[in-house]
Amino acid sequence: MIDIRFGPQICTDLTSGASREWLVPDGVGGYAMGTVSGVRTRRYHGLLVVAGERPASRRVGLVSLDPAVLLPSGARVRLGAHEWASGAVDPRGFELLERFELVDGVPRWRWRIGDVVIERELAMLPGRSCVAVVHRLVSGGPVRLELAAACTWRDAHGERRADGPALRVEPVAGGAVVEGAFRLAGPNWAPAGQWWFGVHHREEAARGLAATEDLWYAGGFSGALDRPGDTVSVLAWAAPLEFDPMPATEVIEVARRRTRQVVAQASPADDVEATLVLAADAFVVRTDASAADVVAGYPWFGAWSRDTMISYEGLFLRTGRAELGRALLRSYAATLSEGMLANTADTGRVEHNTVDATLWFLHAVDRHVTVTGDTDLAAELLPALRGVVDAHLAGTRYGIVVDPADGLLTQGTTDTALTWMDARVYGVPVTPRTGKPVEVNALWANGLGGLAELTEATGGDAGELRRLHAQAVTSFRKRYPAPGGWLHDVVDAPAPAYPLGGATYHDDDSLRPNQLLAWSLPYGPLEPDEPALRRIAAALLTPLGPRSLAPDAPEFTGRHRGGPAERDGAYHQGTVWPWLLGPYVDAARRAGIPVDDNFVGLEAHLGEYGLGSVSETADGLPPHAATGCPFQAWSVAELLRVRRPGR
């Protein structure tokens, strides 16, 4: 894997260290997460963040474990770091960091206090909501180490304040149980019990959200570090509380071994691919012994069917997880209703409210069968997949129906946002894209072509599917070319009302990246078009992927910043989306355009925001600072999928 390591120039500078985040997932939707500096910049940061019945219903438990070193001189040196609502940063342990690194996915901090050097490593037990934190004396000593446990128990999307009840902390052998929800274990537990008031989260403040919470200092652990190699370790785990975890040092080793196995299973070609394989592993979570789901992004997203299906090939087929992917496809097929795939919402409701997730599902099944040769799965799912086509021909929810006049798929009303560009501001869609969006019809044509192939591979008659595919392709080629030399983003969109009458529909020729799917998909409607792709690249490409709108558009917004309304207003109006590099690279390769240089920016990005991973979004204007989730499934999956073609 690539070397992710920072020295004092980054570690001791709060701005630099606090803007680089690490993630250690537990494999079931929870995680530990924080920054290189140790300062918590998000409400979502913590050492034990526990997934509920759904990955998105997470709760924060153990927030921090602040070290303090007692030197032989009697001096007490605090190594933790917190930012407070007053603006103060205290303690400032990051100023003593001489190195931070990721080793086999395990974060390691190294503090130097004169000749005393102490390292911390942190890992989660795979498949369990259990974190191990190990402190080791590297040189110097003897010293004594104290570890202050700051806790809460709250929804990950909120805060807990001191105006509510204090946390319930019950002593047990070797530690304590907090709120009956999670357990702490380590040496020489000493209960405390007081509020720490006004912890500040700078990233939440920048996002226009509540940025202050109070933490409960539950107590602390302590132990002697007499000679190099001595350790002081703490474990924290959620229910079942009677679970007896292995020693913390063994958890670290188990996590490392699993990392090496995950990477080896994928047979990566180089260190970048190995890093992406491990990054992909974070998003694949087990829901039971045989089934899996996909977390769309950390730290705040859960499972979303569109994200899952776009990510499918990269997360499952490129990482040696075809059997697990097979089970996922079968479980998602069971959610089809009226020809629509369920969009499992983070709210806990199961909704059928996208026009494209189902079409991405058709693509994912086709890619699975094409790559693996699993015609048994094709035969099993074909009735359901054909039901998707029938439902779209007849018409389903939200006005989604095939127009019999041209065989293209139309959808939506002015108050809905059913495509992936689904941001709303005060309940109003920013880009409703009602009518016939370009990528929806590229996916529709692709789905028909792929389904025809699956039908014939299992001995069926695909004549009608071939006819529908040919009609969609012919109509697409006629309808979508725009005067500027690219494709319309939407055709047959409702036109604004005119007081004296006028056109009922219009075609939107906004220069957006959605059109890339028309050239990139295996059964897409267009042949390679080098001039069109070069125009698109000139307007949209950045070091981190394509912009969502050309900079010369009146609606272009170059900064994805501010409060929720400002950010949502910019989300698809110029913001960069790294996942779209996948369709661009596919299309460019088909057109004979060199693409290898397009990976350079994202490869460098692996060490500058969500460490070892790829962000959800970035600003449309230089320096293209990353925004959104630091760890995003489809961003990782698409880069992993297209870096090495022909697999």
Strand order of the largest sheet: 1-9-10-11-12-19-16-15-14
Categorize the overall geometry: elongated
Q: How many β-strand stretches?
A: 36
Tell me, rounded to a whole number, the average pLDDT: 96
Determine Rg (CA atoms, Å): 26 Å
Helicity, as a percent range: 25-40%
Structural class: alpha+beta
**How would you describe the oligomerization state of the chains in this entry?**
single chain
Major β-sheet profile: 9 strands, antiparallel
Cα(first) to Cα(last) distance is 20 Å
Strand content: 25-35%
Quickly count the helices. 17
The unreliable regions are 497-501
InterPro entries: 6-hairpin_glycosidase_sf, 6hp_glycosidase-like_sf, AGL/Gdb1, GDE_C, Glycogen_debranch_N
Organism: Micromonospora musae
Protein name: Amylo-alpha-1,6-glucosidase
Pfam families: GDE_C, GDE_N
Q: Could you please describe the fold and organization of this structure?
A:
With 647 residues, the protein is an alpha+beta fold. It is 30% helix and 27% strand. The strands form eleven sheets. A nine-stranded antiparallel beta sheet has the order 1-9-10-11-12-19-16-15-14. Strand 5 (59-70) and strand 6 (76-78) form a beta hairpin. Helix 5 runs antiparallel to helix 17. It comes from Micromonospora musae. This is Amylo-alpha-1,6-glucosidase. Residues 279-641 form the Glycogen debranching enzyme C-terminal domain.
